[in-house]
Amino acid sequence: MAQFLYFCIFVYLVFDLFNVCSCRSLFNGNLSAVGFSSAVATWYGDPNGAGSGGACGLEDDVAKAPYNAMITAGNQVLFQHGLGCGACYQVLCNQNQECSGRPIIVALTDECPGTCNDDPVHFDLSGTAFGAMSKSGQADQLRKLGRIDISYKRVACDYKQNIMFKVDKGSNSNFFAVAIEAENGNGELSLVEIKSSGSNKWLPMQQMFGATWSANIYPDTQKPPFSLRLTSHNKYQVQADNVIPVNWQSRAIYKSNVNFHP
User: Alpha-carbon torsion 97, 100, 101, 103, what sign?
Assistant: First the structure.
């Protein structure tokens, strides 16, 4: 009888320990999603591709540093008619067995139009970024699901390099446009200004589309090198003096020596 009683106590303790461990695992899983909101994720392009920077004007730069294909397109809630270009997000999936449950960081560089706007929040990631949410060796299996529920939250960008300026292909002696890349912090710009050599006057540029800003140039009086001054959405400013050289070239990228604090 005593042996049977000891056996029952042993079984009870084993099951109790199992329940504690299970609850702890569940708690830790939920802990990883603290501060996150719900969204839908899909992917586009090649399975191991870089996606696109088209709608933000970054073109194929998204395949290279500092983006390294870790990018996303977003529906209008995220893209905001181009004002959302450059924003960074942590995204994670933890509702499918292929998911790692660990967040990755992606930058918004493109728009996901059409049916993406049927969802409250929709991330359309590059194939590379989508696969990065998976457990090791299960990227292809995760991509085969096509559409999954994820969690996300906005985070500060930290590119660990300075801002870059890519001269738009439509620029000429009378018109200058530039795509602004790799801004730290919230990634959103509220104002871009340009100043020509020998002038003390800053002229506001217009947001042409996405991360591309433009201004009319009067070549007789507004001569390069050009300086650019950026104001972030939260009113921080950085100034890139003489960043666009005298003999600037269309589609060339010019690196500054400034950036916002992450």
Answer: negative
